[in-house]
Amino acid sequence: MKQKVVTLLACFSVICSSFLSGLFIVFPKIAKAYSSPGSPTGFVNDFAGVINTADKAAMEAELQSFSDETSNQIVVATVKDLGGDSIENYSNELFREWGVGNKGLNNGVLIVVAPTEHKVRIEVGYGLEGAITDLASSHIINDKMIPYFKSNDYASGLEAGIADLKLAAKGEYSVPVTKKSSSFSFDTIFWGFFVLTWLGSFLARSKSIWGGGVIGLVIAAIGWFVISSLTLRIILTFFAPIFGVFFDWLVSRNYQKNISRGGRGGFFGTWGGFSGGSGGGGFGGFGGGSSGGGGSSGSW
C-alpha cells in the first residue's frame, strides 16, 4: 500500500511540474524574454568560447558527415548565459529560430550548453522523438556529458554525448539498467511523464475540455482505494478534476494554435521552425525542422 501511495504521489508531482511549465507557455510574460545568441555558423556554435579550434573542427566534420549520411542533424550551441530564461524555453526558442533538422522530417537535435549557469539540454525534433526518447536524453546528459562538464572539459562531454545521440538516432542505443531505489525510482517519474504525454496528445485533439475533468475524477476515485489518508483523498478529489479541465484546455489551446500556424499540433508549445541563410557563401543554415519540446535537461 505504501509503495502505491509513493508511486501515485510521484506521478502527481510530474503532472504538477508539467502544469507549472505550462503556465510559462500560457502566460509567457511572466518569464524572461528569450535573447538569441546569434546566427549559426555550422553544426558547432561555440558562443561561450569553451571549445578549442581543433576539437571544434573535428566535431564539425563529424556532424557534417553524419548529416550527409543520414539527413539527421545534430547541432551544438554553447551560450554565454541564458539571460534569466529557463534552459527549456531557451532551447525551444533557439531550435525554432535556427530551424534545426529538415522541414517535413523534423529530424534535428539541438544540444545547448550554458556553462555560466551550469545547465545543459538536449532538444529533440518531432521526427526523432521515437528514437531519442526523453529517458535516453537524460541518461546521455547525466552519464556521459555532465561528468566531463564538472571538470570544465566541454569538448569531451559533447563528443561523448554526440556519439550516443548518433547511436540513438539509428536505433542502436539502449538505456543502461540501473538499480532501483528503496522509495520510487526514476522509472516511476519517466512512466508518469509518458502517461501525461499520451493523455496530452489524446485530449489536445478532442473538441471538449471536459474530458480532462473526467480523467481527473477517475484519478481521484483510484486515490480513494490506494491512499489511506482521508485528508489526501479529499484534496485529490477536489483538485484532480479542476486540474484535469485546465490541463485539457491548455493542451487543446496550444494544439489548435500550432495547427493554425501550419505546425504539427504540438500541445506543450508552438515551435514553428524556419531555415536560416547567409548571402556570401558562408554557412547556409539548416532545413527548417521543428520541435515540440522533447528531450531532457540537466545541471551540475
Structure description:
- This protein is of the alpha/beta class and 300 residues long.
- The chain has helices at residues 2-26, 53-70, 87-98, 134-149, 154-169, 186-204, 210-226, 230-260; strands spanning 44-46, 73-78, 108-114, 119-124, 294-299.
- It has a five-stranded mixed sheet, sandwiched between helices.
- Helix 4 runs antiparallel to helix 5.
- The longest helix is centred in the C-terminal third of the chain and has 31 residues, at 230-260.
- The radius of gyration is 20 Å and the shape is elongated.
The assigned structural class equals alpha/beta
Strand line-up in the sheet with most strands: 1-2-3-4-5
Q: What best-fitting shape do the alpha-carbon axes yield?
A: elongated
Q: What is the arithmetic mean of pLDDT? A: 77
Major beta-sheet overview: 5 strands, mixed
Q: What is the string of SSEs from the N terminus onward?
A: HEHEHEEHHHHHE
Distance between the termini: 35 Å
How many helical elements? 8
Number of strands: 5
Q: Radius of gyration from the CA trace? A: 20 Å
Approximately how much helix is present in the residues?
Answer: 40-55%
Q: Percent of residues in beta strands? A: 5-15%
Low-confidence stretches: 23-31, 180-184, 264-281
